[in-house]
Structure formats: C-alpha cells, structure tokens
Amino acid sequence: MNELRIELADELASFKPTDELNGTVTWDLEQIPSSMELRLFWFTRGKGTEDVGVIKTIRFETPGFRDKKTFNFSLPDSPYSFSGKLISLIWALELIAEPSSQVARREIVVAPGGREIRLDSLPEHEKPKSFFGWKATRT
User: Fold this and answer.
1) 47 to each of 15, 59, 108, 110, how far by Cα in Å?
2) Is 3-135 assigned to CATH 3.10.520.10?
3) pLDDT (tens digit, 9 = 90+) per residue, 75-118?
4) CB 116 within 8 A of CB 109
5) What's the whole-model pTM score?
6) Nearest Cα to 40, choosing from 62, 61, 58?
C-alpha cells in the first residue's frame, strides 16, 4: 500500500501572510522513489485560464521506502486566498513521489486574519482593486 501524508503544526490550515508554515511529511511506499518533493504553491480555479505559481520546493534527498521529514516555509505576503463568483485562488502543499507520480495535496488558507476573502460578501468600497498584479474591473 502506498501512502503519502502532509501534517501541519496548525491543523486549522489557516495562515496570515508572512507566517511560518511548519509540519511533517510521511510516506510509506512499495518501491523506493527516485525523488520526493514538497511544493508550496497557489492556483486559480474557475472560469477562464487557470494560473499556478510555485513559491518553493523542498527536495528530500535519498528517500527510502518510508520516512518522516519536517519542513518549514516562510509564506509570502501575497497573493491572498479568495473566492468569488467566477474565480478562486487556492494555496496548497503537494508531496510528490517520482517516478510513480503518487501525490498528496493539502489545501491551506493564506490571507489577513487567516480567513479566506469572500468577494461576494465584501461591501463594494472594500473590494480589492487588484490581485497579484491583475486589475479588477467592474462592469
């Protein structure tokens, strides 16, 4: 049985920009992987072109069948996790075993107060004018 797991020190998985993200990854595989990587990234989901931004990758050297490793990421100050009617931005961690392409994913929130920004619940004057360099347009 192949098993990959990502555990966070903060089990709520809610963080503020520039927080430290700490945790452990574990794997128990039937074959020795040629590589194990943990990636911190964000991606968009919704209408239109989907975007992805990989922030940092940790490569675990000489992985065995099973192991447990700690990790630490310093989160960037942006972009924020948000959800809207047409698009959402989601942060995640992925542990990837190659060459089998086994993957474990753990979604997290990175936003002020550690809470995802819900665009549909913000008053018009509080809605951001841009997200990670994109200009928000109102029609």
Assistant:
1) 26, 33, 21, 22
2) no
3) 999 999 999 888 999 999 999 999 888 999 999 999 999 999 99
4) yes
5) 0.84
6) 58
